UniProtKB/TrEMBL annotation:
Name assigned to this protein: HPS6 biogenesis of lysosomal organelles complex 2 subunit 3
InterPro entries per UniProt: BLOC-2_complex_Hps6_subunit (IPR017218), HPS6_C (IPR046822), HPS6_N (IPR046823)
PANTHER family, sorted: BLOC-2 COMPLEX MEMBER HPS6, HERMANSKY-PUDLAK SYNDROME 6 PROTEIN
Region Disordered, annotated ranges: 766-815
Amino acid sequence: MKLRRVSDLSDFSRGHWLRELLCRGEEPSRVQSSPDGQHVLLLQKSRPPAVPRLVAFQRHSIAGADLERSWQPPQPAPVGLLFLQSPVVPDSWVLAVVWEHGRTEVWHFVVAVGWHLLQTLELCQGARARVVSVCSQGASLVWCEERPPLGAHSDVSKCAFRFCVCARALELGEQGVRLGTARIVLHNSPEYQVLASPQHVFLVPAAAGFATTSKFLLIWHPEKAEFTITAPSAGFIHSKVLRSSSESDFKKLLLGSVGLLSGFAPLDIHTSTVSNNGGLLLVSTKGSVNIVEPDGTQRHIFDLEGGPLAHGSPVQLKTFGSILACVLAGVLYLVDQNSGRLVEKEVLSMKEVHFLESQGEEDSIQVLSQSGIYSFSFSKPEDNSRPEPCLVEMVFEEACRYYQRRSLSSSKLTVEKLKKGGTFQAPVVLAAILQHSLHQKQKPAQSLQDSYTKLLSTVSLELQSYMSLELLKTCVVCATESEVESYCKELVEQEVSRILQSDMDKDNLAYLNSVFASFPKAAWKATRSCLQLQQNGDGLLVARATPEVWKKVLCQPQLEEVGQNGMVPLFELICASFLRFKPKWLPSFVELTQQYVSSSWSYGSKEGPEGRVPLYKRALGVLARKNKHGEADEEMELELLLCSKRPKAVLQALHLLIHLKRWQRVVEVAEKFSKLSPLLNKEIFITLLAEFAQHRELDPYLDRLWPLCPAELTASDILTTVLQHLPHSQEEPVPFSSEGNQLTVGLLKPLLQRVVQRPSVQDEMYSDALQSSTFPPPTPPREHKIPSKAAADDVPQPSMARTSSPSALLQDDSV
């Protein structure tokens, strides 16, 4: 970037006075130049005893009458200087000076004549109205005015909504200037600063406004008569068409969004202005520069250096083509609006500078300072200094985010530091390889270092995929309508496959959401291809995806990572595609995912996808979000509950079938899932026994239900359960009812006989002992020892009753 002085202040009429005003040390309230750059208007709000004034200076010492207006507080001051295009004379304009009390002076400059007043108009209709902000949108003036309440002691909360946003056409013709009918855009509103783009008007809440109303922006679309409410940092966007003047009330506009907006944080706005492409540029107190598009979405551009911004520190913003120029604390930043890349950073020797219009020169920036007008030119690079490809820029930007997340330092890591620091070599090496590969087809590239050649061979396949993807994107842009569908199908398949092979961060997930929303059918086919979903010979769904792909599918980001933009995880996206294109496969897909989870994570692991919400519940959540529900959805809910094989889900499905009175299916589910566990078998049987006690719908299936009775249930347990669930009748019980729906002992007799005849648990414990061949067991053989005679004499002889064996006693009895 080259800096040169275009002219000094002597080129202006009364240039010495302009230099004096700029050198006083008091910051001018506003410095604004005309569309042709030949006039500079300085709005000076001086402190007493100096008088505030509005002065116009002409470049090249153009002769003619001067424009100078001054006022003495508490007289009303000008709040807006607007340059309006004149339809009578091409490339001609007029200056509208709007004062606080609504008076509007329309001035015109003629060469050799100077400034002359065309007409004075009254913008506001009320005598007590006060204009706080004004802008020009097309051929209309849009302003925010204060309408003070009539009572002197009004409610403070009501006084906060005493402002009104109005619009009025300003018609310039040969007969003079005429104001059209005033139109109320929004009434009973808080104070707003109005900023106009060619097709929209941004309403930015004033700094002194209530905290409850400073959490969102309003965007007015005049052609559609539509308001967009947006809280950019929270990702909230809501649009509403105003069909009648009664709907233009501020509170009615927010009626359906108050609950959501109340939970958002107030907007962090230090400086705001409109870019040349129609977006709203916002600078936060932390130094972050963002742009809010007319549709309400926000995009981050750049972060200014120097830490938090003080309340009084001025920030100058101006866009020149695709370049955003920003001056902060004597430092000029030139940033590419599209990529957020810092093009140039220049430390200025001037204390205060002000941007001027550069008509027809988008590659140069002109600034006004105390010593003159300076021009910064940033010419386009020549062929021998080709700019870095977008892919190379993306490498450094991604490396910045990667290293910043893993850094313990609080200092901000930028692309320039990454390139010049020399600490991190990986992005530098990869950028060199990419430059070599991407330029070799366009012009002879420089030779690559030998140490990089091996890495180039490793990433050659990825480079070829990238180049083919970029070529396909070009084909989509240039294709006819009949070819777009086939190209989009291939493009979506490559994009989905690429994202499933990379980290599933917040940006990739948001991109996948947009792909599935824009190309649902192509995204469905791409998902089937990536997961390799197909039916085998038995009609069962199988998937041959790799474990890495399964982990991307099953990942469930945190709620704060997902945000409130309607973004859903990938598993929910795939389930929604199943419901739309192949609903019969959804239960089998959930069962497949559960099989993978059980083989990859231990049960109840918080790291696994089922550590937070089970997969079948996530699939049920997708089913619940459908707009229309029918019998097919009830069947799908049953299948999702049963395919999980979880006890609670199986019981929930059983109760749902009972509610639908599908008794045949109830019995089938009971027979199938009673085999999973004894505890689930007991719960299922007690549930069906309770239903059996209340009505006679299950009587045809009793021969299939009684075998499900658990072994630990006794006849007493069965009778207790039946008595607890008998229906309560208002009439006196009679022995023989004519209705024929009462429970009888004869219906329970087969179950009770089955339970009574079944061996008890204690009998089963001793069944082995009871079924032995001999009882009691035989006495083990004894060894008889003959003692010596001496020992026999010493030991006293026991009695016959104690020493005789049973066989001996029998011999005695026989004798």
